Amino acid sequence: MSNNIQSVRGMNDCLPEMTDTWQGFEAIIRDWLRRYGYREMRTPILEHTGLFKRAIGEVTDIVEKEMYTFVDELNGESMTLRPEGTASAVRAAIQHNMLYDGGKRLWYTGPMFRHERPQKGRYRQFHQVGVEALGFSGPDVDAELIVMCADLWRALGIAPTLQINTLGDVESRQRHRKKLITYFEANQDALDEDSKRRLHSNPLRILDSKNPAMQALNDAAPKLMDELDAAALAHFDALQALLDANGVTYEINPRLVRGLDYYNRTVFEWVTDQLGAQGTVCAGGRYDGLVEQLGGKPAPAAGFAMGIERLLSLMELGSVTLAPAVPDAYIVHAGDAAQAFAWKVASALRGEGLAAVLHCGGGSFKSQMKKADASLARFALIIGDDEAAVQQVTLKPLRGTSEQTRVDVAQAIEFLQKVST
Length: 421
Ligand code: ATP
Ligand code: MG
Prior knowledge:
Largest sheet: 8 strands, mixed
Structural class: alpha+beta
Bound molecules: adenosine-5'-triphosphate, magnesium ion
Mean pLDDT: 94
Oligomer: single chain
Strand order of the largest sheet: 1-5-6-11-10-9-7-8
Low-confidence stretches: none
Radius of gyration: 28 Å
Number of helices: 15
């Protein structure tokens, strides 16, 4: 073990090569959400612990064992690093009375924190893109959320599959809950520790168990689908009709319950079998009770969140690459007059929107050209005292076989702009 301080386990650095990929991804995301009329919002990474307890539910994996919670020593308050974004989005919507004039389509992105066992696709700091449609009650907006995902997967060159389910409304869930308790009580001996604990507090969550030993028991458990009332069934049917009409294929998975308490009616997950146990790349649904639960005027809501690390892994497996950001030109110069001119040239290029790396640290032309090559720039602009004297530059292609040419700065700019588009 070295004495050097390392990053916190399960929290990753994003080095420049990787940042190129992330920025390429984020650019696609921004453009995609803009086209659907969703607007970005940014909320603090730190919130009062009570927000997540109230929003996510006390008897959930996240609140029971995954939250980074600590006491702010300056005022004794309990604080939590956000484990997800929906609670904050809804808090902000209530706090700023954002729904006073109707529904809002919102999105956010950023780091989330969960104290889980780190492994591929599961980190303690990970990143989500979250999309929330607040104030809309119909199945049309549920369908929009799903259809827009399908659209994004095409843009990213990946093909996860869609599972949907309905959780019904409060009354049908209560009926189902009673039947579940009776069923699991009759099978007490087959329950694992977590499930025993949840039997009376949150039996629906037993169905969400990842323990293989629980699968058979869960498969034979009473189905919520059999308890649904007419309104929830109609909502689910309308959603399916819209998905069918828009060419989105799906599988109905009655076992899909989602890990958070706040969902009702529609729930969905986009899954892949290419990422092992970490196969869910995007998950969401409807959560009509949450706004009221957090103290707002009752308002329906639906949304989803996707895991950026998992999506990028999936793209990588499919050899989908996003173009790295490379400079348009690397400016090489030697001599005092050349240096002074090189600064002006760099400034002129940048002023026209080109990315220009100005060589720093001196050295021979040869060693500077090596740096130019390593920068991945497509062109070097070479400036010696000869060039400086006539205010010109030598434009040398670093890739391919074309010859170098001596040109005016304006010509160089025009040329670089043409080739960079
Ligand atoms: P899982 O069942 O994999 O633990 P979850 O149900 O806890 O997922 P959500 O809270 O629905 O996940 O979060 C939405 C998405 O965020 C997930 O589908 C996944 O892509 C991603 N995600 C969740 N937890 C992590 C994590 N610890 N590391 C990386 N990505 C994560
Ligand atoms: Mg989880």
